[in-house]
Amino acid sequence: MESNTAGKCCEFENVDKMDIIRTASYHRHNFGISVLRANPRDLDQVQSSLLQTISTTSSTVGDVGLLPLEVILEICSLFDIQSLFNFRHVNRRALQLVATTRGYEVVIRHALEALGIILRTKVASWFTISDLLKALCTRDCGLCCSFGSFIFLPSFMRCCFACVRKNCLPPVGRVPALGKLSNPSQSYLHGLVPTVTTLPGRYVEGIMRKQRYEIIPTEFVGTLSVREWHRVRQLQGSLPLKYMVTTSLPCLDVESGVLQNGICCNGCDAFLRRTHGAKSPSFPSDNPWTLRDKVYSYDEFMEHFRECREAQSLWKSSNQGIDVSNI
Ligand SMILES: [Zn+2]
Ligand SMILES: [Zn+2]
Quick one: which of 132, 133, 159, 157 has its CA closest to 147? Predict the structure, then answer.
């Protein structure tokens, strides 16, 4: 992982970057299984159903159907996600209209897992398809500007795993815990702030969480006293709340159509596994664990690759990506 000299970078300039990426990087699955997630086996069938096209239909949407099509589609784009999906069930004409609403098809094609989670956690009534499309097409974490592979559901902010793990996300709390402490009643809070109802599952610590909790961003609740905060923490116990309100979201580059989930460096991982983090003169100045866990976009990874001797070594030992059996 020692920094390379600039002159040696030239040997990689004429290589297809995707060959290097396939050989020297990998997607870190354990980050994605630490947060809210859906069963990928269920998604394919749902996707084809949601994308089905209806060319002609005799059904109508009543007086609304008398409006110009552009106006109807504009109204559809202003529906929150839950209302849009409810509207879709009215009849075949409504289904047709929703299918042509701006952003719908892109979201179904590229953000279906996140969309399913958004509907199941009941936060869908707070955001529109355009909000989700905007998050899908945003690349960087809203907090640290690194590549972000996740979405923080209470605000639809793109974020990175490091910010979830380091507790950098805006504070969240369980509604019952906050309802007992603060002036607003629970029902008042429900109507006032985005509420995420968590799903049963195993999160970052691997413990099965069967109970569903209602989580809100506490910034909306007003200022809690130090004593109240202490009480909130006691009531929340050890629940990994921020993992329970975050889910994976790939990043779509609209211009190129490339979808990215974020990649880590195989070279840095191999180096750390070999040395167990022991001090070494070839360690870069960064914390090696942080570097091992860093998630890159394709372009960011290529910049790293030009500096990472371990990744370059993997690339060369694979005979330029032809033999990856030992990687
Ligand atoms: Zn971040
Ligand atoms: Zn590396």
Answer: 159
